[in-house]
TrEMBL record, chain A:
Transmembrane residue ranges: 34-57, 69-92, 98-120, 132-150, 156-173, 203-222, 228-247, 259-277, 283-301
Compartments it resides in: Cell membrane
GO function terms (MF aspect): transmembrane transporter activity
PANTHER family according to UniProt: GUANOSINE ABC TRANSPORTER PERMEASE PROTEIN NUPQ, SUGAR ABC TRANSPORTER INTEGRAL MEMBRANE PROTEIN-RELATED
Keyword Nucleus found: no
Protein name: ABC transporter permease
Main localisation: membrane
UniProt-listed Pfam families: BPD_transp_2
Tagged with keyword Cell membrane: yes
Membrane topology term: Multi-pass membrane protein
From TrEMBL, chain B:
Protein localization: Cell membrane
Record carries keyword Nucleotidyltransferase: no
MF annotations from Gene Ontology: transmembrane transporter activity
One Pfam family from the record: BPD_transp_2
Membrane topology: Multi-pass membrane protein
Transmembrane portions of the chain: 12-31, 51-70, 76-97, 104-126, 138-156, 193-212, 242-262, 283-305, 325-343
Alphabetical keyword list: Cell membrane, Membrane, Transmembrane, Transmembrane helix
Annotated source species: Leuconostoc pseudomesenteroides
InterPro entries: ABC_transp_permease
Protein name from the UniProt record: ABC transporter permease
Gene Ontology CC annotations of this record: plasma membrane
Length: 318, 375
C-alpha cells in the first residue's frame, strides 16, 4: 500500500465516523452553554436516525440522489420536536436535567422501534437505497497530494459538519445571541436582571441541540448503518457528549475531539487493512478510544469547567 | 443529588399519568387500550410461570436500583451499572465453568463474592478517578461500559477454553454445583427461571437499608453527598467515603449480574450492547425516590410491565416497545414532579375555595335565618 493510499483510507473513514459526532457534540455545546445539561443526545440522535430512514425509504424514488440531504432535514425537524420534551421538562417544569435526559434516552429507542413496527410490521427497516456514499469536493480535489487524501472520495456530511463547527464557534463567541446564551448559562440571575429572557434562551439552546443531534443521527443512519433498528444508535450520543466535554464546551474543541474519536473508531474498522496495525488484536483497537478518553480526562482535563449554571434550574423570583 | 425524596402521591400520579400516555399512544395508532392493558395484566399474572418471570425480572432491578441509590446518596451519578453488572456476570460464569467439580457449598458463595468483587472494582475505578483527579464519573462510567462490554465479549470469544463453550458466541450451561435455581421453586413456577436470587435481593434491601441508615459508614456517605466540605470539616475523609460508596454501588450491580448468570440464564453469550438492567435499575431507583420500600414497589411495577408487555403483541397486537414508552413516561413525570405538585396545589386550592364558599353560603343562610327570626 502506498502512503497516499493508506492516508486516503484512514482520512476518509475517519471523516465518515467523525461527522455524526461533530454535529451532535456541537449541539450539546449549545445546550450546555445555555445552562441545560443534555445527556439525552443519544436519544435525540436515535430519533433523527429514525426520521431520516423513514423519509429516505418513502421518498427515495421522488428525490433521487438529493434524498439523503433531505433526510438530514427530516432528522433535524424530528430531533427538534423531540428535544422540546427535554426543554419543557427542564426549563418549564424544573425537572432534574439528568433525569429528563435519561427519559429521552429511554424513550427514543422504544418509540422508534414501536413506530417502525406500526409502519413496516417488523422491528427493523429495509436498507435505504440512497445513501451518502463518497463524494468529491469540486476544485479542491485537484490539489496535488492533499486533494486525493482529503477531498477525493470523501464524506460530504463531514465537510458540512466542519463548516457548521466554524459557524457555531462564530455564533457562540462573536454574536449578540452567543453572548446572551453564554451569560444565561453562567449566571442566569444577572442575565435576567439585565432584561434577558432566560427561559427563551435556554429553550433555543436545547432546540439547537435537537436540530444538530437529529442531523447527527441522520448522518449515522444514512452513511454508516443504512437502515434503522434498535442497534443503529448505540452509544454515539454518549461519545458525542464526551467530545463536547473534551472540547471544553467550545465548538472547535468539540470538533477536534470528535475527529479524534472518529479516527480511533475508524482504526478499529480499517485497522486490519493497515500495515503495522494488522497484528494488533482487534480488542485493543476496539477499546482504545474509550481507554484514551479516560486517560486524557484524568491527566489533562481533570478539572474541566462546565458553564457555571450548567444543570441548575433557574427559578425566577415571583 | 439525583434521587430525590418523592412522596408517595407523586409516584402514584406519575404511574397513573404514564399509563394514560400509553393508552393515548395505543388509541392514536388504532389499538384498543383496554384490551392492551388487559393483555398486559393477564400475561404478567396469568400463570405461576408468569409470576416466576416477574420475580426473575425483579431480582437484578432491585440490586441495580440499590446500587444507583447508594452512589447517588454520596453525590455520584453511576451510569455504569450495566458494565459493572456485566463484569460480575462474565466473571462468575467463567469461574463456575472452570471448576465444575467444586462442591456447591464452596462454589456458590465464592462465585457470588467473586462477581460482587468484580463489580465493586469496576465501580471503584471511576470513584477513585473522581475523588483523586476530579474526572467526571459520568464520562468515566460511560466509557467503562464500552470497555467492559468489548472485554466481556472478547473473553468469551477468544480467551475462554473451547471445552467450556457451546459455540463461539455462547458458553455451556453452568453445572448444578453453581446454579442458583431451586427445584421446588422451578416446579412451583412451572419451569420459570426464578432462583434463590430473589431472596438474596430481598435480603440486600434490608442490608443496604441498615448500612445506610444505622451505621457510621452510611452516615458518612450521606454527609459527603449532602455537603462534602462540611463532612470534611467534621473529620470525614470525603475521598475515601466517595470511593467506598462507588465500590458498594458497583458491588451491588456486580451481584445483580452474577445472579443473571448463575440464576437466570445459567450461561454467558455475546452481548450486542450493555445489559439493560443497569438503565432499568436507574429508572427503578428514580421512581422509588430513594426509599427502600419504594425500590421494591418500583421494581415490582416495572417487572410486571416488562413481563406483561411480552404478551401484548400476541393477544392485542400492540408492540412490546409500548411498555418501555410507558416506563419512560413514568420517569418523565417523576422528574417533572413540579407539574404534579402544581396540580395537587390547584386541587387543594379548589377544595379550599369550595369549602370556604360552602362555609360562606352556610353562614349567609344562618345569618338570613337569624335575620328572619329577629323580625
Amino acid at each position: 500500500m502506498s502512503l497516499v493510499a493508506i492516508l486516503t483510507l484512514v482520512v476518509s473513514s475517519t471523516l465518515v465516523y467523525s461527522a455524526p459526532l461533530i454535529f451532535t457534540s456541537i449541539g450539546g455545546t449549545f445546550s450546555e452553554r445555555s445552562g441545560v445539561v443534555n445527556v439525552g443526545l443519544e436519544g435525540i440522535m436515535g430519533m433523527g436516525a429514525f426520521a431520516s430512514v423513514v423519509f429516505n425509504l418513502t421518498f427515495a424514488n421522488t428525490f433521487g440522489t438529493l434524498t439523503p440531504w433531505l433526510g438530514l432535514v427530516a432528522g433535524a425537524i424530528v430531533g427538534l420536536v423531540f428535544s422540546l420534551l427535554h426543554a419543557v421538562a427542564t426549563v418549564t417544569l424544573r425537572a432534574d436535567h439528568i433525569i429528563s435526559g435519561t427519559v429521552i434516552n429511554l424513550m427514543a429507542p422504544a418509540l422508534g422501534v414501536f413506530l417502525i413496527k406500526v409502519i413496516y410490521g417488523k422491528g427493523q427497516t429495509e436498507p435505504i437505497s440512497q445513501d451518502f456514499g463518497y463524494a468529491n469536493v469540486p476544485v479542491l480535489d485537484k490539489i496535488p497530494f492533499i486533494g486525493p487524501i482529503f477531498f477525493e472520495k470523501t464524506s460530504a456530511p463531514a465537510w458540512l459538519a466542519i463548516i457548521v463547527a466554524v459557524l457555531s464557534w462564530y455564533i457562540i463567541f462573536k454574536t449578540k445571541f452567543g453572548l446572551r446564551l453564554r451569560s444565561v448559562g453562567e449566571n442566569p440571575q444577572a442575565a435576567d436582571t439585565l432584561g434577558l429572557n432566560v427561559a427563551r434562551l435556554r429553550y433555543s439552546g436545547v432546540m439547537i441541540s435537537g436540530v444538530l443531534g437529529g442531523v447527527g443521527g441522520a448522518v449515522v443512519a444514512q452513511s454508516i448503518s443504512l437502515n434503522y433498528s434498535v442497534g443503529t444508535i448505540v452509544g454515539q450520543g454518549f461519545v458525542a457528549m464526551a467530545a463536547m466535554i473534551f472540547g471544553r464546551w467550545n465548538p472547535l474543541g468539540a470538533m477536534g475531539a470528535s475527529l479524534f474519536f472518529g479516527l480511533s473508531q475508524s482504526l478499529a474498522v480499517v485497522g486490519a487493512q493497515l500495515p503495522g496495525l494488522k497484528n494488533v488484536p482487534s480488542i485493543w483497537l476496539q477499546i482504545a478510544p474509550y481507554v484514551l478518553t479516560i486517560v486524557v480526562l484524568v491527566f489533562f482535563f481533570g478539572k474541566t469547567r462546565a458553564p457555571k449554571a450548567d444543570g441548575v434550574n433557574y427559578i425566577k423570583a415571583a | 443529588m439525583v434521587v430525590q425524596k418523592n412522596n408517595f402521591s407523586v409516584a402514584l400520579f406519575s404511574v397513573l399519568f404514564g399509563l394514560i400516555v400509553g393508552a393515548i399512544i395505543m388509541l392514536v395508532f388504532g389499538y384498543n387500550p383496554i384490551s392492551g392493558y388487559i393483555a398486559l395484566i393477564s400475561s404478567a399474572f396469568g400463570s405461576m410461570q408468569d409470576i416466576g418471570g416477574v420475580l426473575t425480572q425483579m431480582t437484578p432491578l432491585i440490586l441495580t436500583a440499590l446500587g444507583f441509590t447508594v452512589a447517588s446518596t454520596a453525590g455520584f451519578f453511576n451510569i455504569g451499572l450495566s458494565g459493572q453488572a456485566l463484569a460480575g456476570w462474565v466473571g462468575a460464569v467463567w469461574y463456575a465453568l472452570s471448576f465444575p467439580d467444586m462442591p456447591a457449598f464452596v462454589m456458590i458463595p465464592s462465585a457470588l463474592i467473586l462477581g460482587t468483587a468484580l463489580g465493586a472494582v469496576a465501580g471503584l475505578i471511576p470513584g477513585w478517578l473522581r475523588a483523586q483527579f476530579g474526572a467526571s464519573e459520568v464520562i468515566v462510567t460511560i466509557m467503562m461500559n464500552y470497555i467492559l462490554l468489548f472485554l466481556g465479549n472478547n473473553i468469551l470469544q477468544n480467551t475462554m477454553a473451547k471445552s467450556i463453550k457451546e459455540s463461539a458466541e455462547t458458553t455451556k450451561q453452568v453445572g448444578h454445583n453453581a446454579s442458583l435455581q431451586l427445584k421446588w421453586l422451578t416446579d412451583l413456577t412451572q419451569g420459570s427461571s426464578v432462583s434463590t436470587g430473589i431472596f438474596i435481593a430481598l435480603i440486600m434491601i434490608v442490608v443496604v437499608w441498615f448500612v445506610m441508615k444505622k451505621t457510621t459508614l452510611g452516615f458518612e456517605i450521606t454527609a459527603v453527598g449532602l455537603n462534602p466540605d462540611a463532612a470534611k470539616y467534621a473529620g470525614v475523609s470525603a475521598k475515601r467515603t466517595a470511593v467506598v460508596a462507588m465500590a458498594i454501588s458497583g458491588g451491588l450491580a456486580g451481584l445483580a449480574g452474577t445472579i443473571e448468570g448463575l440464576g437466570n440464564y445459567l450461561n454467558f453469550f455475546t452481548q450486542n450492547s450493555s445489559p439493560s438492567i443497569g438503565f432499568d435499575g436507574m429508572a427503578v431507583a428514580l421512581l422509588g425516590g430513594g426509599s427502600y420500600l419504594g425500590i421494591l414497589g418500583a421494581a415490582a411495577l416495572f417487572s410486571v410491565l416488562k413481563i406483561g408487555g411480552l404478551g401484548m403483541p400476541m393477544s392485542s397486537g400492540v408492540p412490546f416497545e409500548l411498555v418501555d414508552i410507558v416506563i419512560a413516561s413514568i420517569i418523565f413525570f417523576v422528574g417533572a414532579n413540579y407539574l404534579i405538585r402544581l396540580i395537587q396545589k390547584r386541587i387543594k386550592a379548589m377544595d379550599e375555595k369550595a369549602a370556604t364558599q360552602d362555609a360562606a353560603k352556610k353562614s349567609a343562610k344562618v345569618a338570613s335565618k337569624q335575620a328572619k327570626g329577629g323580625e
